[in-house]
Amino acid sequence: MDNHHFDNLLRALQETLVSAQDGLRKRNEAVLRRRDTPQDNAVLTFAIPRTPADEGEREMLSLPAASFRSPCCRQISMLSLEFQCRLTQSLLSGIGRRYYVQIANGKTSRWWRKAQVRMQILFMGMDHPCGEVLVEGKHFMEIPSFGAESAGSPEITAKRSKFSLFMDCLLNPWRPQRFILTREQSDCLRKILKQQPKKSVDGETAVPAKTTPGGANEEADTYGE
Question: Model pTM greater than 0.85?
Answer without folding.
Answer: no
